[in-house]
Design brief:
Layout: E1 11-12, E2 23-27, H1 38-44, E3 49-53, H2 70-80, E4 89-94, H3 96-112, E5 119-122, H4 140-150, H5 155-158, H6 161-180, E6 193-198, H7 206-210, E7 220-225, H8 236-247
Parallel strand pairs: 2-3, 2-4, 4-5, 5-6, 6-7
Antiparallel strand pairs: 1-3
Helix pairs in contact: 2-3
């Protein structure tokens, strides 16, 4: 299947940090793109070399076929990272991206013998926790209503009918991938895991997020922030400091 995708467009290295001791790979949420992590890259460089993953079917990859499920997407991402394993690697994923990050970390540990430095997961229930969600089966209007409820898409896009219709197929595809994802039991990760969640997130409860601790034999850190599904927009500075601390590169100066 990988031949259907442009292998030169998977990663964005907005602020190269060739001398950094660690690389952080960031995985977007459903309907999201690599540019969501541009501010993260800018803030963490040069202490951390940030790679943001661009999924097929959006922005400059909009003419490529969408990837229909998380296992396939995770294997494709893992394959693209083969050339980026020259230094310790960590992962950050929000919402659907957390599931992808987890699966990619499992693949690297199981098939490449690479243990990530740390896995950061945000706004997503633990893999062992499931819900019967069917938003991907809703009408276009129902899907748009869900996006407005979560406030994860810029208001300018939600108000631009032409742009909105253009991105809806990718959003619907990603919702289906996230909602139909089912964890295949296997050995837990051995790396530390840090999980973040918004206290009022309608997509994941605090208990569902805390269950990420069951998926690693390493240290587990858990933090609840005020806010909903996209709580991290209001707490960016705090999240970035938690990332720096988790990667051992210090915190930003006050």
């Amino acid at each position: 299947m990988s031949d259907a995708y442009d292998n030169g467009l998977w990663t964005r290295r907005y602020h190269p940090a060739p001398d950094s001791p660690v690389r952080l790979v960031c995985l977007p949420h459903a309907g999201g793109s690599a540019s969501f992590y541009f501010p993260v890259s800018r803030s963490l460089s040069p202490a951390v070399d940030v790679l943001a993953v661009q999924y097929p079917g959006r922005q400059d990859r909009r003419h490529e076929p969408l990837v229909p499920d998380i296992p396939t997407l995770s294997h494709l991402v893992a394959g693209e990272l083969d050339g980026w394993l020259d230094r310790p690697i960590a992962f950050f994923g929000h919402s659907m991206g957390a599931s992808v990050a987890f699966e990619v970390a499992r693949i690297l540990q199981r098939e490449r013998g690479v243990e990530p430095v740390r896995l950061f997961v945000s706004g997503r229930r633990a893999p062992s926790r499931t819900r019967d969600e069917r938003v991907h089966q809703e009408s276009d209007e129902g899907l748009i209503s869900e996006m407005r409820k979560l406030a994860g898409t810029a208001g300018s896009i939600l108000g631009d009918e032409e742009m909105l219709r253009m991105i809806l197929p990718a959003i619907r595809n990603d919702y289906k991938a996230a909602e139909t994802y089912r964890y295949e039991p296997g050995p837990p990760l051995s790396c530390p895991v840090t999980a973040f969640v918004g206290a009022d997130d309608p997509k994941v409860t605090v208990d569902e997020a805390r269950a990420w601790g069951e998926h690693t034999t390493g240290d587990f850190e858990f933090e609840v922030f005020p806010g909903g599904h996209f709580y991290l927009a209001a707490h960016q500075a705090a999240i970035l400091d938690r990332i720096r601390g988790g990667l051992g590169v210090g915190v930003a100066a006050v």
